[in-house]
């Protein structure tokens, strides 16, 4: 009986210590936050694109503010990722304002968009 209590106490102690001293899992994701925006990206592979994407995002937001009077009510999350073999983008507002940008190279077989202007076009 005493051995059972000691095992239970040891198990509870290990679980409590593990919970108290564990760090949150972030899956190698890095963030860069600004006013009204959170850019989430994989450190290393997409790092070179982050400064340009942030500037383009704010230029687009300023243009939409002047032209349409749009003012976001919450922070907008932008995810830069390379999950596919072709460049793509999507926007969702449910349940949070999120923009997902695929940074893979474009297929130029039927493309009329210059690769260096793709980020500007996607953000607008």
Q: Notable features of this structure?
A:
single chain, 124 residues, alpha/beta, Zincin-like, 5-stranded mixed sheet, 35% helix, 23% strand
Explain how this protein is built:
Helix content is 35%, strand content 23%. The chain is built from three helices and five strands; from the N terminus they run αββαβββα. The protein starts with a helix and ends with a helix. It is of the alpha/beta class and 124 residues long. A five-stranded mixed β-sheet has the order 1-2-3-5-4, with no helix packed on it. It is elongated and about 75 Å long. The protein has a single domain, classed as 2-Layer Sandwich (Zincin-like). β1 (29-34) and β2 (37-42) form a beta hairpin. The protein has helices at residues 2-20, 50-68, 118-123; strands at 29-34, 37-42, 76-81, 88-92, 98-102.
Tell me briefly what this model is.
This protein is an alpha/beta fold and 124 residues long. The protein has one domain (26-123): 2-Layer Sandwich (Zincin-like), CATH 3.30.2010. It has helices at residues 2-20, 50-68, 118-123; strands spanning 29-34, 37-42, 76-81, 88-92, 98-102.
């Amino acid at each position: 009986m005493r051995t059972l209590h000691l095992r239970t106490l040891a198990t509870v102690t290990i679980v409590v210590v593990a919970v108290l001293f564990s760090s949150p899992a972030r899956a190698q994701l890095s963030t860069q936050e600004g006013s009204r925006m959170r850019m989430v990206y994989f450190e290393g592979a997409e790092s070179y694109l982050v400064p340009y994407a942030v500037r383009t995002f704010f230029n687009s937001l300023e243009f939409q503010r002047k032209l349409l009077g749009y003012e976001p009510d919450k922070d907008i999350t932008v995810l830069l990722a390379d999950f596919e073999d072709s460049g793509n983008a999507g926007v969702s507002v449910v349940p949070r304002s999120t923009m997902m940008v695929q940074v893979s190279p474009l297929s130029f077989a039927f493309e009329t968009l210059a690769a260096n202007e793709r980020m500007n076009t996607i953000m607008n």
